[in-house]
Write a structure and sequence with these properties.
The chain is of the alpha/beta class. 27% of the residues lie in helices and 31% in strands. Helix 4 crosses helix 5. The longest helix is centred in the last third of the chain and has 22 residues. The two termini are 42 Å apart. Bound molecules: 1-O-pyrophosphono-5-O-phosphono-alpha-D-ribofuranose and zinc ion. The site of 1-O-pyrophosphono-5-O-phosphono-alpha-D-ribofuranose (PRP) has 13 residues, from strand 9 and helix 6.
């Protein structure tokens, strides 16, 4: 896109640029805040002026390009950026539309936010029985590649109308009989009198990389990836502390969720009790805490973990 590429400081080295890793993030929309937030949690501090296309990290060799989500794959294949955060829906749509062009893009890791699904929805007045009901109909979408594949795999013949946005108004304006669009809360569908009928795919935010990284950039990329992995692990983990009767230690260890080897320490002045500390790599529910209590544990404390590195 001319608007977005014109101010890019292009480097002289054609492969991977000036020794700084470049990451493309969504400028505004579903993923943008969480994407910037993930970098911040990874200890990377950015000058935050969202109206700018480009910002530099002060304390990490990383430059950030804030662009339209649909443009991120193009920034990666042209090596303007080497990594990006995008919805799986965006990557898969590009790969469905252009089978040759995006083969160097690798999905590295799912980031656990930006969950949504691509679905076919019909007006509530439409009699929908199965995908067969789509035969001979017109479907409006911004995801013609994925929709065409879905219909072809099921032997359905339908017309696809490609729209850039506001797909949900297509049935009302008689542009199409149905739509195929992203659904997150479902509010857009409901407020436009539409009902979800088929889920084509589930999507979430992913880290994507270009496979052609030079050695220096690869080192920076691996450092970034290791920090991102650490943030995701810490986000999904809890630190649990409790006091346990020595006699009940085995049963209490068995109840602790997702923790391999808890630390067991003596409690001063108590011959019969020990303190147990453990990192639980999954959520600790109230029901789990109650079960620990039933097994004899007391003073149970569950705290979030800010950082974690092996
Ligand atoms: C999607 C989709 C709907 C809305 C659905 O657009 O096109 O408009 O989100 O979300 P809901 O179920 O929570 O109401 P998005 O904001 O992703 O913009 P984009 O299609 O331009 O990327
Ligand atoms: Zn978009």
């Amino acid at each position: 896109m001319d608007r977005t590429t014109s101010t890019i400081p292009l480097s002289t080295n054609p492969i991977n640029g000036d020794g700084r890793l470049k990451i493309a993030l969504q400028k505004s929309g579903r993923l943008s805040e969480m994407s910037v937030g993930l970098l911040e949690k990874a200890g990377i501090s950015l000058t935050k002026s969202r109206d700018q296309l480009f910002c530099r990290a002060h304390n990490f060799p990383l430059d950030v390009f804030l662009v339209r989500d649909d443009d991120i794959p193009a920034f990666l294949v042209t090596d303007v950026c080497q990594v990006g955060i995008m919805g799986q829906n965006v990557l898969w749509e590009k790969q469905a539309l252009f089978t040759e062009k995006y083969t160097t893009l690798e999905e590295v890791i799912a980031l656990g936010f930006g969950h949504c699904r691509l679905s076919i929805a019909a007006p509530t007045s439409f009699t929908y029985n199965s995908v067969e009901s789509l035969n001979g109909k017109t479907i409006a979408t911004s995801y013609s590649g994925l929709l065409a594949t879905y219909l072809r795999d099921r032997g359905v013949e339908a017309d696809i109308v490609t729209m850039e946005g506001a797909v949900e108004v297509a049935p009302r304006t008689h542009l199409a009989d149905l739509i195929c669009d992203l659904v997150s809360t479902g509010n857009t569908l409901t407020s436009n009198g539409l009902q979800e009928q088929e889920v084509i795919l589930q999507s979430q935010a992913i880290l994507v990389k270009n496979s052609n990284l030079n050695e220096d950039i690869q080192v920076i990329y691996e450092k970034l990836l290791s920090r991102i992995r650490a943030v995701l692990r810490a986000d999904n983990s809890r630190y649990i502390m409790l006091n346990s009767p020595i006699a009940a230690l085995d049963s209490i260890k068995a109840v602790l969720p997702g923790s391999a080897s808890p630390t067991v320490m003596p409690l001063q002045g108590r011959e019969d009790m020990v303190a147990v500390h453990a990192v639980c790599e999954e959520e600790v529910f109230w029901t789990t805490m109650e079960e620990l209590q039933r097994n004899g544990a007391n003073s149970i404390l569950v705290v979030p973990i800010e950082k974690m590195l092996d």
